[in-house]
Amino acid sequence: MAETEIGLGKSGRRAYRLDEIAIIPSRRTRDPEDVDISWQIDAYRFDIPVLAAFTDSVTSPATAVRMGELGGVGVLDLEGVWTRCEDPASELAELGAMPLDTAASRLRELYSRPIQPELVAARISEIASAGVRTAGRVRPQRAVELAPHATAAEIDLLVISGTIVSAEHVSSSVDPLNLKTFIRRMQTPVIVGGCVSYQAALHLMRTGAAGVLVGAGSGHVGTSRHVLGLDAPQATAIADARAARMRHLDETGVYCHVIADGTMSTAGDIAKAIVCGADAVMLGLPLAVASDSPCPGRHWDLSAGHPTLPRGRITGVEPHGTLAEILHGPALDPEGATNMMGGLRTSLAKCGYTDVKDFQRAAVAIVSP
Question: Is the pTM of this model over 0.70?
Answer without folding.
Answer: yes
